[in-house]
Amino acid sequence: MNLLIDPTAFSIGDIHVRWYGIILGTAALVGLLLAVQEGKRFGIKPEFFMDLLLLGVPSAVICARIYYVAFTWDEYKNNLVDVFKIWNGGIAIYGALIGAFLCGYFYFRYKGYPFWRLVDICAPGLLAGQMIGRWGNFMNQEAYGGPVEESFLRNTLHLPDFIVNQMYVASEGLYHHPAFLYESLWSLVGIIILLVIRRQKFLRAGELVAIYFIWYSIGRFFIEGIRTDSLAFEGPGALGSLMDALWTPMTWFGFEQGFLDPAYGDVRISQLLAVLLVIAAIIFIVVRRTTGAASVHYNDPIVSTKETAAPVTDAKTDNL
């Protein structure tokens, strides 16, 4: 008998508080703490990042929902009320990033801070938020991969019972790949990499967030291929073949692509975006380096044109 986790954490009368919301809130707070801690090195007040969070979270959630609904409009066009039920899941990471970056651009500009310097500071926090946020998908029993044997989860991955049980989809009578866990662990490794790289003297402004996009997108490309709920579109045959060819290394490790509903299309949108983001991030770094636009280093002081920063004793402290 498989005991699934109740997606509702607790109830107060008719108000039901779901794990999904609690986990997303925790993800936002952890991301905030990482940004605040790093901001102190540059004399940026914690209140700056707190205000950013208050503006950024709604922007990210709204754009994430718009992104998801736009690609699954047939499911919502006859029942518009469901568009607002985000507690049931159905928000897209890439949409959230669009919302967060748009909000950040205007907020940083309003405060007089250089955009690339501040998004670099926020990059590890963004990845931490995604790492924790994936556990909200776990609680909702969504964003999982294709079918897999129970023995693979227990004996090969050595997962605890509460994860194995949650990966059992009763309506299908099958266990599934914990794609949420793969992405969460990939993000954890990425956070460590970003924390180490940001102390290196060679790093220029804007490059840490570019590395963030490269790392996250590589993981997302391969993990997305395992999932069974990918947003997709009908693309040219050559494009679909290219995506399949790039994903081939996963088959060397015994993975198979998850089912992709032909009604959605044959090209996974997140995979295509991941490839484009990796290419764009690499071009961004190379062009800025070759043209001299990347003259400012990550560890250089950050100065606002509109605010007086708090005193900084050493902006190049090597503490992680």
From TrEMBL:
The chain crosses the membrane at residues 17-36, 48-71, 91-108, 115-133, 179-197, 209-226, 269-287. Pfam families: LGT (PF01790). A 1,2-diacyl-sn-glycero-3-phospho-(1'-sn-glycerol) binds at residue 134. Its EC number is 2.5.1.145. GO terms for biological process: lipoprotein biosynthetic process. It is found in: Cell membrane. It is a multi-pass membrane protein. Its main location: membrane. One of its GO terms (cellular component) is plasma membrane. Pathway: Protein modification; lipoprotein biosynthesis (diacylglyceryl transfer). Keywords: Cell membrane, Lipoprotein, Membrane, Transferase, Transmembrane, Transmembrane helix. GO terms for molecular function: phosphatidylglycerol-prolipoprotein diacylglyceryl transferase activity. It comes from the Bacteria. Belongs to the Lgt family. Catalyzes the transfer of the diacylglyceryl group from phosphatidylglycerol to the sulfhydryl group of the N-terminal cysteine of a prolipoprotein, the first step in the formation of mature lipoproteins. PANTHER family: PHOSPHATIDYLGLYCEROL--PROLIPOPROTEIN DIACYLGLYCERYL TRANSFERASE, PROLIPOPROTEIN DIACYLGLYCERYL TRANSFERASE. This is Phosphatidylglycerol--prolipoprotein diacylglyceryl transferase.
